[in-house]
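Researcher: Please translate sequence to structure tokens.
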Amino acid sequence: MHTPMTSRAVPGPEGMALAKKNGRLKGKQPKMPETARRSIRRRYAQGEVSLADLATEYSVGRSTIHRIVHGQADGKTPWPVRTPTGAGELA
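Model: Translation complete:
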């Protein structure tokens, strides 16, 4: 026997606002905890390991480690914006 649902999804912006209010709208979660990110930054800065070694150790791609090391994996730091200033030049 099928049990009826007690609540229904609310479509559109109202549903998003309701989900956010109820703490159910979180977005994409980070691949690894902040403690691991700090360790990666520290070890790379001290020259202990390469990006490739860290990627293997943490089972992620080198690009993920690169974003962590260069401060662009937090979702708050934007990628550098390149604005054309002339023929083939980038600012």
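Researcher: Any highlights?
Model: The helical segments are 12-21, 34-45, 51-58, 62-69.
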